[in-house]
Each structure stands twice: as C-alpha cells, then as structure tokens.
C-alpha cells in the first residue's frame, strides 16, 4: 500500500481524500501546517507528497524549495490558483505535477498513479546529528567519510532508525543478535553493541530507555 502525505489545511479536502484513498488502497498522512509537515517528513515514510501552495504558516513553494534536496519522492502541488506563472514555477522547482482546486477525484488519482509510475526509486537517507545513513546501500558517513560498521552493528542501527521516535524493546534487539550469532549472546551483549555504535558514530541521540530498550530520540535531516 502506497502512503501519500497531504500538506493541506482544508479539513473538507483532508476528510474527502482520506475516504477516497481508503477506497483505492492508498494510505493518507496529513499535515495542516509546514510545522506539522516538517515533523512528519522527519518521522514517517511516504511515497508521494500532495503539497498545497497556500498554508497558514507559509507557502508551499518556499517549503518545497527548503526541503527539495531531502525529499526523494514525487511532489504534486495543489492550488486554488491556475495562474500560468504559478504552474511554471512549481514545475521549474522540480515538482512531478500541478493540479488546480477544485479537482476531480479520478483526475487526482490518475495524476498520483502517473507520478508514482514514473518516479525512480531513490535512496532513503536519514541524518543523525552529523552522521548520514544510506538505508538501502547500507552506508554510514560522518563528515563525508564512511564509518566501518559490522553487518550486525548496521542491522541494529537500521532497526533503531526505521523505528525512530519509538522504543525498540531489548528483546527485539536481542533476538536480532541471537539470529546472527547464537553462540555469544548474553544480557550484556546488546549493551556492548549499542556502546560500539554510539562510539563509532559519535552521536548522543540513541537513548537508553531503562528497563524497556532503546530509541533514536531525535535527528535532523
């Protein structure tokens, strides 16, 4: 199921698209402001963005320009304005498409499907402080230099990053270690691995949640 991020402050449009997407095997994430959208962009995974040009705390063009180097999915602008300059500006910024409100549901679905079909799968990238993690190619860079991680260290880091802002139970991580190296697992093993990862990356955002597990507390794009 594809996930669509809608950045739009009109409650009627949000509700209407939520129902429409459910009927067409699409999952909707929504944000009404650039502030809410920023949080979702950092914490959630999505396949396409529908971005309104006019938002309560900013405009969609400026927001996209700020984030375009960090967005790896198609973006379709939504607007009530059909001015040629606006349409050209959106496309020049690199948007996949531009649709004027009010729009027909079938037209929007076709445009979404077309954008998804023609988009190339791009590398998923996450930044933890000054460390950049390439999730698909399994590379970790700090100040443009690659950090050597073992396969198991990377798998632990990957699991924490994929579940960022959520606690990953110790048991889940212990099971991962056990699957990789069943002969050398005890209660202290996970602690050692987490310590090594922290030291190699030189970051403080991997937090220990006493009695529960670990989580990536915060990170920057």
Question: Could you walk me through the main structural features you see in this protein, from its secondary elements to its overall organization?
Answer:
- With 221 residues, this protein is of the alpha/beta class.
- It folds into two domains: 2-118, Rossmann fold (3-Layer(aba) Sandwich), CATH 3.40.50.2300; 125-216, Winged helix-like DNA-binding domain superfamily/Winged helix DNA-binding domain (Arc Repressor Mutant, subunit A).
- Helix content is 41%, strand content 24%.
- It has helices at residues 11-23, 34-43, 60-67, 84-92, 105-118, 151-162, 170-180, 189-201, and strands at 2-7, 26-31, 48-52, 54-55, 58-59, 75-79, 97-100, 125-128, 131-134, 139-142, 145-146, 168-169, 206-209, 213-216.
- The mean pLDDT is 86.
Topology record:
Elements: E1 2-7, H1 11-23, E2 26-31, H2 34-43, E3 48-52, E4 54-55, E5 58-59, H3 60-67, E6 75-79, H4 84-92, E7 97-100, H5 105-118, E8 125-128, E9 131-134, E10 139-142, E11 145-146, H6 151-162, E12 168-169, H7 170-180, H8 189-201, E13 206-209, E14 213-216
Parallel strand pairs: 1-2, 1-3, 3-6, 6-7
Antiparallel strand pairs: 4-5, 8-9, 9-10, 10-11, 12-14, 13-14
Helix pairs in contact: 6-7, 6-8
Secondary-structure element series: EHEHEEEHEHEHEEEEHEHHEE
CATH level 1 name of the largest domain:
Alpha Beta
Oligomer: single chain
Give the DSSP E fraction (strand runs of 2 or more residues). Answer: 15-25%
Give the rounded overall mean pLDDT: 86
- The SS-based structural class is alpha/beta
CATH architecture of the largest domain: 3-Layer(aba) Sandwich
> Going by CATH, what is the homologous superfamily of the largest domain?
Response regulator
Q: Which word captures the global form? A: elongated
* Tally of separate helices: 8
Total domain modules: 2
Number of strands: 14
Through-space gap between termini:
25 Å
The CATH topology of the largest domain comes to Rossmann fold
> Largest sheet, described in full?
5 strands, parallel
C-alpha-based Rg, rounded = 20 Å
Helix content: 40-55%
């Amino acid at each position: 199921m594809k996930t669509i991020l809608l950045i739009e402050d009109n409650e009627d449009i949000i509700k209407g698209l939520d129902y429409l997407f459910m009927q067409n095997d699409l999952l909707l994430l929504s944000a009404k402001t650039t502030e809410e959208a920023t949080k979702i962009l950092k914490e959630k995974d999505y396949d396409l963005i529908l971005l309104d040009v006019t938002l309560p705390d900013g405009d969609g063009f400026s927001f996209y320009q700020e984030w375009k180097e960090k967005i790896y999915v198609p973006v379709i602008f939504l607007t009530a304005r059909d001015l040629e300059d606006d349409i050209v500006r959106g496309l020049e910024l690199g948007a996949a498409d531009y649709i004027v409100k009010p729009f027909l549901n079938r037209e929007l679905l076709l445009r979404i499907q077309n954008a998804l079909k023609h988009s190339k799968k791009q590398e998923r990238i996450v930044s933890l402080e000054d460390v950049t993690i390439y999730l698909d190619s399994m590379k970790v860079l700090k100040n443009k230099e690659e950090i050597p991680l073992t396969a198991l260290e990377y798998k632990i880091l990957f699991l924490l990053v994929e579940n960022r802002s959520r606690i990953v139970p110790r048991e889940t991580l212990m099971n991962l270690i056990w699957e990789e190296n069943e002969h050398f697992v005890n209660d202290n093993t996970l602690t050692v691995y987490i310590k090594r990862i922290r030291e190699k990356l030189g970051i403080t955002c991997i937090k220990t949640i006493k009695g529960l597990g670990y989580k990536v507390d915060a990170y920057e794009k």
